[in-house]
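Please fill in the sequence for the structure shown.

STRUCTURE ENCODING:
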């Protein structure tokens, strides 16, 4: 008796139809009150898993925070899906198997693309708010005041430091000036906390801000050290 091996017939249209059907069912589940992904997030904690993996993969960590920086400007699921692929599905980024599978779609406007946006974006937003104190200065101040109650100090910076025009650089500077003015005003009402407001019997500043010099000059170039220094210096003098 001879057993003859045969190659199974592959039907791309059937595979695509099955993929679309599964994605449709999962996407529908996300819109229900007791949706599937609410249960999955409770069980899997996507945000924890993404952060744990990112901490051991510098390439993913860099791209993840670049995506977080862009996320507030994205208005639709196809936009989110497209940016997810552009930031995370690149050779320099090592992805966990589950995340790699979610990003394996051909069209951001497809059901699998919407599924990726619906699943990953909320987890990334949850992750972001561990590091972002607020999307307005008022919200950030409330977060700072909670930290001070726990005897924790802070340094504040602003997202969006990737500037490509001088108008953007000037606007970024103005955002910092507004931030510093409002923080200084709010700090006048903060009760002293010796554990964080004094060291060696000397008072410490209650307000700290961090800046990225590249955000203040759109033509910043390491190969043009003198020109970059001059461009940045002109802009940061008001901060000092």
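FILLED IN BY: designer on duty
SEQUENCE:
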């Amino acid at each position: 008796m001879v057993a003859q091996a045969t190659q199974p017939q592959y039907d791309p249209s059937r595979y695509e139809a099955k993929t679309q059907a599964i994605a449709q069912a999962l996407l529908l589940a996300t819109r229900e009150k007791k949706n599937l992904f609410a249960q999955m997030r409770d069980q899997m904690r996507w945000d924890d898993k993404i952060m744990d993996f990112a901490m051991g993969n510098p390439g993913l960590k860099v791209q993840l925070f670049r995506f977080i920086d862009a996320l507030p400007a994205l208005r639709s699921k196809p936009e989110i899906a497209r940016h997810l692929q552009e930031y995370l599905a690149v050779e320099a980024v090592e992805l966990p198997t589950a995340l790699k599978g979610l990003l394996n779609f051909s069209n951001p406007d497809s059901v699998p693309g919407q599924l990726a946006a619906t699943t990953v974006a909320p987890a990334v937003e949850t992750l972001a708010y561990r590091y972002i104190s607020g999307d307005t200065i008022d919200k950030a101040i409330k977060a700072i005041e909670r930290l001070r109650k726990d005897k924790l100090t802070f340094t504040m910076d602003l997202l969006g430091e990737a500037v490509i025009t001088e108008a953007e650089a000037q606007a970024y500077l103005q955002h910092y000036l507004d931030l510093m003015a409002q923080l200084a005003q709010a700090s006048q009402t903060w009760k002293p906390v010796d554990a964080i407001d004094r060291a060696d019997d000397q008072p410490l500043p209650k307000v700290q801000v961090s800046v990225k010099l590249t955000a203040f000059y759109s033509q910043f170039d390491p190969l043009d050290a003198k020109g970059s220094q001059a461009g940045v210096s002109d802009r940061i003098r008001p901060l000092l």
